[in-house]
Write a sequence for this structure.
């Protein structure tokens, strides 16, 4: 899509009734609430998925009123107050991850940091969504349930293709009859295990503060069934793990490719703290270079790279200066927007300073890694907490070095709904000074 937008401009027709945009204005026109304008509801792309036959989740629900109701009872779990209560749970897993990569690096010359970021973020979201981590950081192995989740995300791209081209789906089923059967079986296993985790957490007598603590407070007033709670919890894991791990991995790669930025970041972090224990979410908010490094990493490699399709409401609407008829499916392509030379000067250059200098010529609002509007990412503050805290602790304690300098991150990545990232071997050593 990046190449298509570079060739045809800010709006590209990708199907008879579907348009792709890549501008900052299109983000606002499509996803923000506009006075006197009906809501751009989610398209049929969101139909199906886990628990679809029994309950919608905050991600899959299309009706704006239902979404608003869900958001009201879920937002308490993601409020600043709740995050402060949950921070010790998050920090415990991050600290364990920091220790484990040090131990693993002692026993081998380099570790796949991409895998370890995934293990950590899934453990964190498992702890918050189900009251127990998946044990990935402990074992160094991906949990079977996590494996099913990751595979299902990759299959999402294929499912969308089959919706657009049914004959391709028919051919695929005839050529690979076992693939569809396995997908259905994996979905059932995923749903069954999710229900088991949720019910175990609900039966436990605990005073721990996690997502379910807040959600269960609304169980009776909002008439929440076990299936509804499980659907939300499943989405928390899917949306709140892989994306954060992707951002951490990309940022790590680009820091290795830009040694001066890496040196300056280490200096900022190490001069700000007397000891490791001082690092927490609130103390990292003021680390200006760290924050711009994160913004730049998410610009170059949006953690959620696929477009979020919406349907133009009755009466039509103007998007990026173009009138678009009602019923048209529209979206802003995150990667095509954030990597367009029309929006960013030298978009393939990792330049954190573009986020703090006012005269760069960049259209910063073209990068929206958490989307925007009433359906923006509910876990944005949690994501920032994990990103800042993890990166600050890693670079306070360790010096890191890319084992294979020839690695081309973008060229070796694939996008199947989410990014399929390459292996990235990193040498992790205790800091020298």
């Amino acid at each position: 899509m990046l190449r298509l937008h570079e060739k045809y401009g800010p709006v590209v027709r990708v199907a008879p009734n579907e348009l792709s945009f890549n501008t900052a204005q299109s983000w606002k026109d499509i996803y923000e609430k506009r006075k006197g304008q009906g809501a751009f509801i989610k398209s049929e792309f969101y139909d199906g998925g886990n628990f679809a036959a029994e309950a919608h989740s905050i991600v899959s629900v299309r009706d704006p009123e239902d979404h608003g109701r869900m958001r009201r009872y879920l937002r308490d779990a993601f409020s600043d107050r709740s995050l402060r209560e949950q921070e010790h749970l998050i920090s415990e897993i991050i600290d364990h991850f920091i220790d484990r990569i040090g131990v693993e690096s002692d026993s081998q010359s380099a570790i796949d940091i991409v895998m370890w970021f995934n293990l950590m973020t899934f453990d964190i979201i498992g702890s918050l969504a189900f009251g127990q981590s998946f044990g990935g950081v402990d074992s160094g192995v991906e949990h079977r349930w996590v494996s099913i989740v990751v595979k299902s995300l990759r299959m999402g791209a294929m499912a969308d293709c089959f919706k657009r081209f049914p004959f391709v789906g028919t051919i695929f089923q005839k050529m690979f009859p076992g693939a569809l059967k396995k997908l259905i079986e994996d979905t059932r296993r995923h749903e069954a295990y999710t229900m088991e985790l949720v019910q175990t957490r609900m039966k436990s007598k605990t005073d721990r503060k996690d997502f379910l603590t807040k959600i269960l407070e609304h169980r009776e007033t909002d008439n929440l069934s076990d299936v509804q709670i499980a659907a939300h919890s499943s989405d928390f894991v899917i949306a709140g793990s892989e994306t954060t791990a992707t951002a951490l991995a990309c940022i790590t790669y680009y820091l290795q490719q830009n040694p001066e930025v890496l040196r300056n970041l280490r200096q900022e972090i190490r001069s700000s703290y007397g000891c490791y224990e001082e690092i927490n979410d609130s103390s990292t908010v003021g680390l200006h270079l760290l924050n711009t490094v994160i913004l730049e990493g998410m610009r170059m490699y949006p953690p959620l790279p696929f477009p979020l399709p919406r349907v133009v409401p009755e009466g039509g609407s103007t998007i990026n200066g173009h009138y678009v008829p009602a019923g048209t499916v529209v979206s802003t392509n995150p990667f095509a927007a954030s990597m367009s030379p029309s929006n960013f000067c030298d978009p393939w250059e990792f330049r954190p300073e573009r986020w703090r200098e006012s005269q760069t010529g960049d259209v910063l609002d073209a990068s929206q890694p958490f989307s925007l509007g009433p359906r923006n990412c509910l876990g944005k503050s949690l994501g920032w907490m994990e990103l800042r805290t993890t990166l600050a602790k890693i670079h306070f304690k360790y010096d890191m070095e890319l084992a294979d300098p020839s690695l081309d991150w973008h060229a070796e990545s694939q996008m199947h709904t989410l990014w399929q990232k390459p292996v990235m071997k990193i040498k992790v050593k205790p800091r020298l000074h």
